Inverse folding.
């Protein structure tokens, strides 16, 4: 249920409760739902159109208070505050969560002003009705992020994110399921990455490059977490004009094939990007050979 975290963009995870319902294409292969099959935190993970299972309130509410007490010690070592991701196994703005639980959470957040809270939601449309606008002015140590996996979600949800008067705004484009043109938008932070797990969908290198370049042009902190299961394969020139090779196979500008078929690679959407399924432990987190792990200034002070 989280404490010290291996996630590259936070120090701790805190789950005030566990359980959720899939509401986005990004949820299709949810790691929390998969893990719940083994750990049985809740009776079932919610599916669209089904009656939701009750959420499970955890017993870890003392952890943020402990981290608050450790603030000076952490700061003396790292020269920055602790970053807390809430919630990795749930959604703060879930309709099925009792309102009093959410009130308890924001009370806890207000008691831990030296932590830097990261609230990430797939239900950005619920935020304004669940949290009074004036409450955000009392929480300068809290940022709000929306999961946005493709252009349709960007067009629908980014205006809702910007309408919330949080101290800072961010986007989690993870898993990134298509190219995203952010236009003239200027969020404080964009995190992106590929999907992991048995049924992971691959991500085009070009989608990531375009986000990187848009962030650079707009002065937006860009954080590339990982490739996930799939990464760009190393290609060699082919003897045939307009074709390229990978191993013993030659490719041209073909459509994407089913990702679970073999051999474990395929071409992406008419581009010359061949993706190979290597597994997360081998794909790494470099984009064109460079690590991108930027943070907005609000998470550094």
């Amino acid at each position: 249920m989280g404490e010290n975290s291996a996630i590259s963009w936070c120090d701790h995870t805190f789950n005030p409760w566990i359980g959720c319902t899939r509401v986005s294409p990004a949820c299709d292969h949810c790691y929390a739902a998969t893990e719940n099959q083994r750990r049985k935190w809740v009776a079932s993970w919610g599916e669209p159109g089904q009656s939701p299972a009750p959420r499970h309130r955890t017993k870890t509410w003392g952890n943020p208070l402990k981290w608050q007490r450790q603030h000076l010690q952490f700061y003396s070592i790292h020269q920055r505050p602790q970053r807390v991701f809430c919630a990795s196994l749930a959604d703060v703005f879930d309709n099925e969560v009792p309102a009093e639980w959410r009130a308890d959470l924001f009370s806890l957040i207000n008691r831990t002003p030296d932590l830097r809270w990261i609230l990430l939601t797939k239900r950005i449309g619920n935020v304004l009705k669940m949290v009074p606008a004036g409450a955000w002015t009392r929480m300068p140590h809290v940022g709000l992020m929306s999961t946005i996996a493709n252009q349709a979600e960007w067009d629908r949800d980014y205006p809702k994110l910007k309408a919330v008067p949080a101290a800072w705004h961010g986007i989690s484009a993870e898993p990134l399921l298509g190219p995203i043109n952010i236009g003239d938008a200027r969020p404080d932070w964009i995190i992106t990455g590929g999907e992991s797990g048995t049924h992971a969908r691959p991500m085009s290198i070009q989608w990531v490059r375009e986000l990187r370049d848009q962030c650079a042009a707009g002065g937006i902190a860009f954080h590339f977490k990982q490739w996930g299961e799939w990464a760009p394969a190393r290609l060699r020139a082919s003897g045939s004009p307009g074709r390229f090779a990978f191993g013993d196979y030659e490719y041209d500008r073909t459509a994407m094939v089913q990702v679970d078929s073999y051999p474990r690679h395929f071409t992406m959407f008419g581009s010359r990007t061949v993706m190979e399924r290597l597994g997360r432990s081998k794909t790494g987190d470099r984009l064109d050979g460079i690590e991108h792990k930027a943070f907005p200034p609000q998470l550094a002070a």
Remarks:
- The chain has two domains: 12-229+281-299, 230-277.
- The longest helix spans residues 205-218.
- The CA atoms of residues 54 and 64 lie 24 Å apart.
